[in-house]
Design goal:
Length: 186
């Protein structure tokens, strides 16, 4: 897994897969690409970087962004940026896109998943209290649906694991997951 994300690792472990973690540092694209194209391009960059370090085996990489009205919300720069993002998402429906790239036998397969998330209206006090927890600081869109922000969600259309950061349905389309499941984890 070409990611240091504890959330992605947790999702894979829940599926009975114990990956080797190989976090890579790449300069992610931030160009004006549509969100679906952007997450696929960034996941591909991560998979390619990891493949240079390790040519054998299967490498899985992913990238997640939140999009609202065509604007991409990545990870916040600081607390003020996190509060701004949450205020923009308040009372609105946004999309979470995760791109996945799988490198295997010299080839890369890519895809993306989208989940629609509707937030209820948030008060400035709720936003400030949530930002003060520090949880939003390394999350796309400044929130963790599996954490404290779960209470902000009114409706979700799509896969929850996509919002967390790794759409297992998509991953299963890109690679046959059964060959990676540890028997003792079933």
């Amino acid at each position: 897994m070409a990611s240091g994300s504890p959330r992605r690792l947790e999702i894979l472990r829940a599926a009975g897969i114990e990956p080797e973690v190989m976090a890579v540092n790449v300069a992610e694209l931030t160009a004006e690409l549509p969100p679906r194209e952007l997450v696929i391009a960034n996941a591909r960059l991560k998979a390619e970087a990891a493949a240079k370090l390790r040519r054998e085996g299967v490498i899985l990489a992913a990238d997640t962004v939140v999009a609202l009205d065509g604007k991409i919300f990545g990870k916040p720069r600081d607390a003020a940026d996190a509060a701004r993002m949450l205020a923009a998402l308040s009372g609105r429906t946004h999309s979470v896109f995760t791109g996945a790239a799988v490198y295997r036998d010299g080839k890369i397969s890519c895809g993306a998943a989208e989940t629609k998330v509707a937030f209820r209206k948030l008060s400035p006090e709720e936003i400030n209290a949530y930002v003060a927890t520090g949880e939003p600081m390394d999350k796309a869109g400044a929130y963790a649906v599996q954490g404290g922000a779960g209470r902000f969600v009114q409706q979700l259309a799509g896969d929850m694991d996509n919002v967390i950061g790794l759409p297992m349905r998509l991953v299963g389309e890109l690679i046959p997951l059964a060959e990676f499941v540890e028997p003792e984890n079933i």
